[in-house]
């Protein structure tokens, strides 16, 4: 009762007007234009060490953003990342490549940064790039360097000692920059983030680089025999005319990879293309990572999307929440493709400076293509389950309209929760209005957890205070469109913190489900203090959120509930939850341990 009576977001106003459409909120700009880093930060009135995550990837201190290269090499996983070794802010010119290693993708040891800005081709920062393992097994890295005149170029480094499985030291090649922004019409300050290389049928290496040309946003294609001297192919891998498309600008952090419909085995991009293979082109644009599914036409050396949608707002997203600049890699150890992204803080910069760190990487996820060939699916790597402890289980629950079932027995700040919701009837589904696809966030604001529906909202209330002043809700609603059912998944942060100056939107995304065949909708949520990652419908919609509840910092205790607020009863055939133990993530001075 508390939950519903206190939740005022009823679509007719309430807190919806406070739900900004983009994270660029005026009180807390996360703009990169701050230089130099402040020496004596103004200490904000609230900062708590309890917001630091226990099992997500982050360095001991300071700023991180994009994952730059995940790689499995000689028995070791490597994560390279955008890192500011000096402070907890993104500062133009300070950005280096941080480096951590792991044997299980859960526990990490931080090594020393591998690429630092120290020459004309990267003096304004060593920005995002990718690692590639060459045919002889030797790794190389291509990265974007910012040069003084705001010009972006691509540089190459290779390991000093390839027999060192930790790849501790890297050397910049004397030929840098290996790629210059010399394309006609190219904006020299919008030319970055080279992909991992792949070999084409002619035996030559290829990479794509994001670029903004006069009226185009493009994945420019380059070819090379030796990874050192590169020639631009006269057509891009894929491009779009910016004047024809709505809500799109330069594609950052491109990723191009092969996937097999309905098969979660990963594919090595340089291996021969199997029959039935599809390709995914991922771009980071605006505030989201979006993707297109299509085929790689080898004759034309071009990506051809299965469907052309001019309005970028309708493109599918890797994650519908706080998740950007993701990068995938083929894990040759387990034959899977893994992706992970950067989740930035949603607090104020002054808080970040005071707490001394900002940014995390999401839990690595296995990624593959749904059997319908249209949508990517993601699931946290199995290794993360090694942190599960104190399992609790419930079977055969029934949630009627207005019911809340409290989930006790696990640490509600560090948990892994898996619930199956079974629909007792699908007749009560409300009609689907396709215009909500343009703005699911707005729809989540208007149709919050307190707004009764036909089927749903039902889901999970987490990080809830005793009187429900604070709570975060992850929930579903079911709609009927002509022949199919559309499921809306929301991660509603509007009441996640009683503190001001946090970015607290209601994130949302839709997925299709054949409810005539399968009546169950699954929800898995990983809670890790200020990070909440949710996977709906078996990984069809993923939403990462950052939350800063006072219950975590001040009270140290919160509640968690499964709930239903739709007219149709929802069964819960299986609910499992675990406390998640703390992982050893980049414990200070890790490099002395190896
Ligand atoms: N971050 C990097 C850029 C990239 C952007 C700079 C995306 O290379 O385009 O830190 O977050």
What's the level 1 CATH class of the largest domain? Mainly Beta
**Residue-averaged pLDDT:** 90
Low-confidence stretches: 1-45
What distance separates the N and C termini?
54 Å
CATH architecture verdict of the largest domain? 5 Propeller
Class by SSE composition:
mainly beta
Total separate domains: 2
Q: Which homologous superfamily in CATH is the superfamily of the largest domain?
A: Glycosyl hydrolase domain, family 43
Work out the helix count: 4
Helix content: under 10%
Q: Cα-atom Rg, whole angstroms?
A: 23 Å
Largest sheet: 7 strands, mixed
Shape: globular
Tell me the β content: 35-45%
* Small-molecule components bound: 2,5-dideoxy-2,5-imino-D-mannitol
Q: What name does the CATH topology of the largest domain carry?
A: Tachylectin-2, Chain A
By DSSP, the count of extended strands is 38
How would you sum up this structure, described in words?
Belongs to the glycosyl hydrolase 32 family. It holds the Pfam family Glyco_hydro_32C. This is Beta-fructofuranosidase, insoluble isoenzyme 4. Keywords: Disulfide bond, Glycoprotein, Glycosidase, Hydrolase, Signal. This protein has 594 residues and is mainly beta. It folds into two domains: 62-380, Tachylectin-2, Chain A (5 Propeller), CATH 2.115.10; 387-580, Exo-inulinase, domain 1 (Jelly Rolls). It is 4% helix and 44% strand. It has four helices and 38 strands. The strands form seven sheets. Strands 27, 29, 30, 31, 32, 33 and 37 form a seven-stranded mixed β-sheet that branches. The chain is globular, with a radius of gyration of 23 Å. Residues 1-45 have low confidence and may be disordered.
